[in-house]
Design a protein that fits this description.
114 residues, 62% helix
Length: 114
């Protein structure tokens, strides 16, 4: 899913007065969470040109995250809770799958201090 596709899905899921200027930073925040927590990459300061990091079938996590925060801004807390629960489910499932597919090689050691 690209940033533009995420914004289009979000506009269909949460059709409010919020425009792309408010929604784009929220999708970017979800991307940066995925990059920092799971992929170990540096955060982005602007929207990427290509695909976002979370692949299908988990990529609706971006839409649910942004919809949750827009619902919170609008004071619709039951919708906020529902959207955040959907985001958490997709995000955690993707994170577990990604970590399982990218295990360190056998015999790898963790050197914590030095």
């Amino acid at each position: 899913m690209t940033m533009q596709q995420a914004l289009e899905q979000l506009a269909r899921r949460w059709p409010t007065a919020h425009g792309d200027d408010e929604a784009l930073p929220l999708v970017l925040q979800a991307e940066n969470i995925a990059r920092a927590e799971v992929l170990g990459q540096q955060p982005l300061t602007q929207a990427p040109d290509g695909d976002l990091s979370i692949p299908a079938p988990y990529d609706m996590a971006y839409v649910h995250f942004a919809a949750a925060l827009l619902a919170q801004m609008d004071g619709v807390y039951d919708r906020y809770n529902a959207e955040l629960a959907l985001y958490n489910g997709l995000y955690e499932t993707w994170a577990r799958a990604h970590r399982r597919e990218n295990l360190p090689p056998r015999g790898a050691e963790v050197v914590a201090y030095g």
